[in-house]
Amino acid sequence: MNLKRLLRRLPEPPSESDFRSPVHDERVAARIGLWLGVAFGLCFATGLLSHGIQNPPGWFTWPTRPVSLYRITQGVHVVSGIASIPLLLAKLWSVYPKLFSRPAIRSLPHALERGSILVLVAAAFFELATGLFNVAQNYPWSFFFPTAHYAAAWIAVGALLVHIAVKLPVIRTALRRPVREPEEASKRTSALSRRGFLLGTGAATGAAVLATAGSTVPWLRDMSVLAWRSGKGPQGVPVNRTATAAGVARVNPQWTLEVVGPRTARFTLAQLQAMPQVEAELPIACVEGWSASAHWTGVRVADLLKAAGAEPMSTVVVESLERAGKYRSSVLPPIHAADPLTLLALRLNGEELDIDHGYPCRLIAPSRPGVLQTKWVSRLEVMP
What we know:
Blueprint: H1 2-9, H2 26-54, H3 69-95, H4 108-135, H5 145-176, H6 194-212, H7 243-246, E1 256-260, E2 264-268, H8 269-274, E3 278-285, E4 291-300, H9 301-307, E5 316-320, E6 329-332, H10 334-337, E7 343-348, E8 351-352, E9 362-364, E10 377-382
């Protein structure tokens, strides 16, 4: 009996109608949702490009020009992901009163709709959280980040499309209505207005982008207080994986480069240095979103292939002195192998390569992810 009396005295749980702030309005939710959809769309599209470059299907070709193309697309990928964080939080704040709508489930279609929203929110948080950890190169989990991130992206986008399809009539109506109704213009209230909330969300998103975009956009680096790896490292270029971490801190003085084609050619470091040297200004652009331009000097890969009797337009496997790890070797597509700016670099910014940058030589090719710019190269092999 005492328990029943206690339960009667407990306050009733809130209902959706109890939340009367102007920010919990369909006009606000629709506009933030539109901005969030654009950010998600850019992030998803550029993420697919990055995945395709690193795991190319047979029909996929990535161009070598402009030389900064991957730098741009991956920068957009990471920056749009950063922008999505305040937008997602603002979107959830504008609609969270719907959690208290009664009845919680009205029908089977309504249950499916709510379930899709749960999947969407969970996948979005997973993508944004793991993406942040990735740009910081911190992996407190046992799964392989690229595979999980790629799979969750498809889940998030699928759930997003379902949500848009269900809510499209509401979205269209809300976007047609002005944020500020005429009769509201003369009202003064202490509550945050719809317009104020939207402006605040835009400002927070802009601040997040400005604080981080300098990792990719050089002229923003002085303003991007949270930019990562934007200019520090040996010879003025950041390093993700050091020689010590890769197990190649010492290189055998008798090192030679092996080039395998119709015939096999071998080159000592002195022989490579005696060959015609090509200079190129090319960026290193990593999947974490940071990038840095540098001045490289080395030998054209096309010239090395010719020395082994191979055509420059060949698919080439580039192998490293590193003996373990997913990225100890890379595949150079024909369009990149034949490009006159694709080099086995021997010097960086006028100096002999630092060991952490791949001494005695490393691959540098235009418009390629940093993880495919193989360091400590020991062998080039033309695929049949």
